[in-house]
Amino acid sequence: MKPTIVVTGASKGIGLAVTRHLLHRFNANVIAISRSVTPELFALNSEALLVLECDVTDETALSSAISHGAAHYHGIDGLILNAGTLHPLCRIGDDTPLDSWKRHFDVNFFSLVTATKAALPYLHRSTRGGRIVFMSSGAAVKGTPGWGPYNASKAAMNSLCRTLGEEEPDVISVALRPGMVDTHMQHTLRLVGASSMDENDYKKFVQVHAGGKLVKPEDCGHVIAALSLEAPKTLSGQFVSWDSEECKPFRQE
After folding, report:
1. Which of the residues 126, 150, 173, 202 is marked catalytic?
2. CB atoms within 10 A of CB 93
3. Looking at residue 74, which CATH number applies to its domain?
4. What does the alpha-carbon distance between residue 136 and residue 179 come to, in Å, rounded to a whole number?
């Protein structure tokens, strides 16, 4: 029987690359959850792909989407929590409203709790062994000025992953750093980041892009897809980088 993987934020960037790999390289069913359906996601039309439009901050809608997908494919074997936002780029002491911070955490943290709680019963029943991959960031262990909400939400994500690793020994949970990836988020940083970031930090992102050194979504996406199916128990609760020695077996040649 084909494995079934849930992917949030599946319509573009890393999520779209992961979805393609799961369908075409790993022969998996994919429950693609996205706030909107892009032409690129629509073009992947397949019996193995169930696309569900859903705002991940809507607790009822997200839980229902996961349950619907599980019923459609008779179970869930993996959960890839990729949906996220960078907004607002701000400093802790500026005049950014607290509501903007709360909205950020609704997307980047509380949606993870909702999705995990909804998926756990199915992951426990997976004959392959259930797995969760959290889309983390180096920001989780740094304090990049101008990224207050993002730094904090990714640190909270890693903590959630560590706790799951302890509480749910039968489900393998991994937080992955995908690197500096050529996505819309990087474009946003180059476009508006100068107003809130330190000059040297901002220049680093501009220079990496100009030098053609951004990671391709397809490269880190392969690692993510593979981990959702094959991550070993030794990685459970861990925060690892896509290009680390631990992830070498999961990178595409």
Report:
1. 150
2. 7
3. 3.40.50.720
4. 9
